[in-house]
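Hi D.,

Good news: the full-assembly prediction came through. Inputs first.
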Amino acid sequence: MSNKTLTRMDLSEAVFRSVGLSRNDSAQLVESVLQHMSDALVRGEQVKISSFGTFSVREKAARVGRNPKTGEEVPINPRRVLTFRPSHLMKERVAEGNKK
Amino acid sequence: MIRSELIQKIADENPHLYQRDVERIVNTIFEEITEAMAEGHRVELRGFGAFSVKKRDARVGRNPRTGDAVQVEEKHVPFFKTGKLLRDRLNGN
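Then the structure:
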C-alpha cells in the first residue's frame, strides 16, 4: 500500500482529463462542488451521494469535559458535528483494494 | 441534498456546460476519491475535510445469534475527518 495524499489539484486534474475543460475551469468546478456540499451541511441538510456515502450533521448536547493533563473540569458547549457514512460500495472497494 | 440535486445546482451555475458534462464532472470527483482510497491513498481537501483509510485488526468476533466465536480478518475501512473551516462554519463561526 503506497501512501500518497491527493489534493484538490488531483481532483481537478481528473476532471480536466475527463471533460474538455481548461485546468482553470476544472479547478473552479471542484471548488463549486465542495462549496455546495458545505453550504447544504451548514444549512443542516444531509448530503447523500449514492454509491459514495452520506454526510450528516449531528447535534451534540453540552457536557462537562476534563482537561486530561490537569484534570480540570471544562464545560463543552453544545455543537454540531459532521459524520460521514460510506456506502456499501465504497466500503467494499476500499476493503478489496487494500487487501494484502 | 442528493447527487442529482448537486448536479443540478452546478448545471444552473454553468449554463455554458452540457448537463451530461456536469454529470460527468461530479461523478469523476467522487470516483476519484473512492479510487484513491481503494489504492490506500488519502484525499485531503483543505477546509472541507480529509478522506483516509483505517486499518482494523483481525479479531475474534461472535455470531450474535449462536454465540459461536468466528475469526474476523484484518480489514480496511474508509474514514472521513471534517476540516477545520467546515467544522467552524457548522457552529456558526
